[in-house]
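Handoff note, outgoing to incoming analyst
You'll be picking up this chain. Sequence as last confirmed:
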Amino acid sequence: MTDIIIYVHDLRSSGVVRDAIRLADHCAERHRVTLVAGHGDGFFRDLAGQGRHDFVALCKGRRSPVAMKLHAALALRRWLAGRPAALIVSMGNMGHATPFLATLGARRHACVYRISNEIARGDGLRGALRTIWMKALIADAVSIPLVGAALARNPIFADALADGRAVEMRSGVDLAEARAKAAAPSPHVWLDEDVPVILAIGRLRPQKNHELLIAAMARLDRPARLVILGGGTDEERARYTRIATEAGLKADAFLLAGETDNVFAWLSRAKLFALPSRWEGSSVALIEAMAVGTPIVASTLAGDAREVLDHGRYGRLFDGDDPDALARAIEAQLSDGVIGPGDRALAYASPDDDYRALFETRIHQRFVERRSRNLWMKAR
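Most recent structure output, in case you need it:
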């Protein structure tokens, strides 16, 4: 039995955090597992402490993003001191700096960095710095799971893919769990009424491109309601409420529904799931929609959405920055010509077994390398 530490930056509602909690519990069937949050605030705080794994929150209080990562890195380094050698799995791009800094010079621990968001975003200096940072992570990692086919196409990972350190991993969901949660009571009265509900899932951030969806909704020729599930600050909520109002969406047609621990109860009752993201790695929400049979409209910019939807066979794709194209796709999906997801979700079942097998392979390799090095030292 070997220690596995699964690290997340914080516990806000997101696919990364949900994946981390589920994976920690799955790996705990065979290993000592601790789920570590750099900052313990967030919607999933209670859920993080449940299950077979241990749970540790390193820091409290809010700081600037950079200060939060540095503070968490110092706390993680202190927490790791004196602990047995461990495989540290950093689950989300936002948190990778913390284990990277915390383990500098500490040869006892090995880091796995799960890359789940697009690297090449065409954003000038920030993009160049992101590339330099990614090269540092690649050099430090014993393994780099790349979530989705889109990320694996980035040439920055070519050498790591060739030597086996980088591995393409699919997104996925537990289909039985999805269908069981879909049977929960309706979470909102709109979902039980005749006006179709268009559902989007994601934090209120520019990446998710909610403003494009709002603009498209204002162009529809039929009544429809827009619901956005996802966390955001008061300022972000006020901004999107203002954008919706200026676009002409009335209060009875636009809802910022906040965070939830059961997206399937919403998805299974929505008329349509919309994914307008400017970039993604591989959208878990897209697969969650497929798992409960919800029709889909997705941006061609949203990571591997084209591959997941088999280039339009299992849902409609639209040009990623065109509100008119999105409006036309929504209209088509609300018509008799709707393209449903069929049984496509069967190809995207939970990847937890694949992750655990990957971790066990890396743990074994580390043991063999350490044992060989120790035997060589003794023979000198």
